Amino acid sequence: QVHLVESGGGLVQAGGSLRLSCEASGLSSSANSLGWFRQAPGKEREFVAGVSWEDEMIAYGDSVQDRFTVSRNDAENMLYLQMDRLKPEDTALYYCAAALWSRASQMTMKNKNEYFYWGRGTQVTVYS
Predict the structure, then answer these.
(1) 115 - beta bridge partners?
(2) What's the rounded Cα separation, in Å, for the pair 126 and 110?
(3) CA gyration radius for the chain?
(4) CA–CA separation, 25 vs 3, rounded Å?
(5) Are 29 and 52 in contact (CB under 8 A)?
C-alpha cells in the first residue's frame, strides 16, 4: 500500500523560507515521477513542482519559478520542496503526489489528473 506523508509546513513571514518533505512508502520502485501541488481555499489545486525518475525532467509552476527548488532522494524514498522568498500568495495546503509513469512531457507532469497517489497535505501560511 502506498503512503505519501508530507511534513514541514508552518507559519512564516513573507520573505522567509520553508522546506517541505514527503516520505513515500510502498511504491513498487523509484521509477515514479513525483510532484508537489497546492490548493488555497476556493481555488483549484495547482501544480507547484515536479521531478521525474532520475531527475531527467524538473518542472516548476510559473508563480514559483526561481523561488522554489524540488529534489528527491530515492535511496531514502523522500521528496523535498525548498521554498525561498515566500509570499502571502503562497499560502495553501501543499500536497505530495506520485505518478505511475517515470517520464513524461512537461504538460503531463503539470497535470494533477496524471498523478495516482496523493498525500493528505501540509499547511503553509505566509503572513506579511
Answers:
(1) 99
(2) 24
(3) 13
(4) 5
(5) no
Nearest of 128, 62, 48 to residue 92 by alpha carbon: 48
Per residue, the 3-state secondary structure of 57-78, as one string, reads: CEEECCCCCCCEEEEEECCCCE
| Structure-block grid coordinates of residue 104 | 513524461
pLDDT digits (tens, 9 = 90+) for 9-64: 999 999 999 999 999 998 876 678 999 999 999 999 999 999 988 878 899 999 99
pLDDT in tens, 82-111: 999 999 999 999 999 999 888 888 899 999
DSSP string, the chain: --EEEEE--EEEETT--EEEEEEEES-SSS---EEEEEE-TTS--EEEEEE-GGGS-EEE-TTTTTTEEEEEETTTTEEEEEE-S--GGG-EEEEEEEES-S---HHHHT-GGGEEEE---EEEEEE-
Cell, residue 63: 508563480
Cβ distance 33 to 103 under 8 Å?
yes
